[in-house]
Design a protein that fits this description.
Length: 423
């Protein structure tokens, strides 16, 4: 499989066109096929003639080889080195809402470090009655909580501010993952240390070389911030902060400090050591929007999409995607087949948890003509996901962060799908 994500020189294009054409009219061929003997039905297959793997063949299982295209990918030209870089979740190939840790995007400023539970320490100091140092085991003795939350890098979609550029939602919306975390509430640890009345901010640092120091307002720290050690039922993976990371539901990914080693309580925000104003949004007049931590409502159709063209031709088509909001629950997702002129409400499948990825489906009877697919999320505050033009009208074109504009996929009649913007 070719993994070139950029529009120009898209080498999969010709291949896809061929297979899509071959796939057209398959529904009609289905009935005919039932009359011709199908060896998969009529003949005994190798997998039915001998034993499969023994139970202990893989003490910890990996996905079957047929799924080995469902992996994180990076965009080579984006950063100079992969130690200080980012990769992308294959959201186009996943279903439901939980992101398996093994393919959840990673962002590190100085590489993923190996830190054992035995060597792990968490210090709470600053404006507290009792500065404390916790071992990993100490943390496991506080009351445990479980929460599902999405973690989205503020730069998700950043390469698309200037126009449609990358072929696939893995690259245009894939700096996101959604996991079920187990851990202890930061408010319980802060209570143990005793926050003094002047303590209005926490400054959180990681144990890696970059430290990724970030200030979080006390109000949020005492609300739903978690010091987590399990994700999706198992220990955090190294690349997601083993053994302990911060979970900051609804807030941009850079505040989710991994390998968290110190939480300082202060009367004001401490600026990050090396990236003072990196995560601010530039306005058209050159001024910056500061402290825009909450990720606004957003959605994307994950299939069909450029990496998932339609092979089966016209007729029944399942359209599916993800919606999320850092401000609470998703209450509605509308889908348009004609570039935003007409909208149909999609089904929200499963639970719509607050500050977590929400799955939607829309089942249509595709007439085989081209479509301009869009999805539009609404959250419980009444906020409606804006168009990209509406966003640019407010924030200009020189932006990188917080691009939550509506995505358009141009579905060609042959089933191939392209990232476009329409006026
Ligand atoms: N210690 C530490 N924490 C960190 C980072 C880092 O480089 N070091 N990167 C941050 C950024 S910018 C993001 S988007 C998220 C990504 O989390 P993930 O790697 O689990 O996807 O981690 C955040 N926490
Ligand atoms: Mo990030």
């Amino acid at each position: 499989m070719t993994d070139e994500p950029v529009k120009e020189g898209h080498s999969r294009r010709a291949f896809l066109r061929g297979t899509a054409a071959a796939g057209a009219g398959m529904l009609a061929a289905t009935a005919a096929r039932a009359q011709t003997p199908d060896p998969l039905i009529t003949e005994v297959q190798p997998w039915a003639s001998e034993f499969g793997d023994a139970v202990d063949a893989t003490p910890y299982g990996m996905p079957i080889e047929f799924e080995n295209h469902v992996v994180r990918r990076n965009v080579e030209w984006l950063t100079e080195s992969t130690a200080s870089s980012i990769n992308f979740t294959p959201i186009h190939a996943l279903e439901g809402t939980i992101t398996p840790q093994g393919c959840a995007f990673e962002r590190h400023h100085s590489g993923a470090i190996e830190l054992s539970k035995a060597d792990y320490r968490l210090m709470i100091n600053g404006l507290v009655d009792k500065p404390l140092v916790f071992t990993y085991e100490d943390l496991t003795r506080f009351p445990r909580h479980v929460t599902t939350a999405f973690c989205e890098c503020a730069a998700n979609g950043g390469m698309e501010w200037g126009g449609a550029q990358l072929e696939g939602c893995q690259f245009t919306q894939g700096m996101i993952h959604n996991m079920e975390y187990t851990g202890v509430m930061l408010r319980d640890l802060l209570a143990e240390a005793g926050v003094q009345p002047e303590g209005k901010w926490v400054y959180v640092e990681g144990a890696d070389a970059s430290s990724n120091g970030r200030s979080i307002p006390m109000e949020k720290a005492l609300d739903d911030v978690m010091v987590a050690f399990y994700a999706n039922g198992e220990a955090l993976r190294k690349e997601h902060g083993y053994p302990v990371r911060l979970v900051v539901p609804g807030f941009e990914g850079n505040m989710w400090v991994k390998w968290v080693r110190r939480i300082g309580v202060y009367d004001q925000a401490v600026e990050s050591r090396e990236e003072t104003s990196k995560y601010t949004d530039l306005m058209p007049d050159g001024r910056a929007r500061k402290w825009t931590w909450v990720m606004d409502a957003k959605s994307v159709i994950t299939s069909p999409s450029p990496q998932v063209p339609i092979h089966h031709g016209k007729g029944p088509l399942v359209i599916t995607g993800l919606a999320w909001s850092g401000n609470g629950r998703i209450t509605q997702v509308d889908v348009s087949l004609d570039g935003g002129r007409n909208w149909t409400p999609a089904r929200i499948s499963g639970d719509a948890k607050p500050k977590a990825l929400t799955r939607f489906h829309l089942d249509i009877d595709w007439n085989g003509e081209e479509m301009y697919l869009q999805s539009r999320a609404t959250d419980e505050t009444g906020y409606v996901q804006p168009t990209k033009d509406a966003l640019r009208a407010i924030r200009g074109n020189n932006n990188v962060y917080h691009n939550n504009g509506i995505q358009t996929w141009w579905v060609h009649a042959d089933g191939e799908v392209e990232n476009v913007e329409i006026a």
